[in-house]
Design a protein that fits this description.
This protein has one helix at 22-34; strands spanning 2-7, 13-17, 39-43, 49-53, 57-62. It has 74 residues and is an alpha+beta fold. The chain has one domain (2-62). A hairpin with a 5-residue loop joins strand 3 (39-43) and strand 4 (49-53).
Length: 74
Amino acid sequence: MEIRIGIRNSARELSFESTQDAKAIEAAVAAALESAAKVLKLTDDKGRIYVVPTEALAYVEIGAEETRRVGFIA
């Protein structure tokens, strides 16, 4: 699943792949924002941890889960 995080006052965004499902990521983001936590922590598919200050979050885009296609498309 692809995750893109926009950072306030920055032209760049964080983009990475995660093995977590969309509901778990959405719950983690919502919990961090609602509890007034200082940081949001997410893990990518290679085990790297991303720590983003919650007050710097502009947006979090959670990609749709897609199945891998097999074969050729004509």
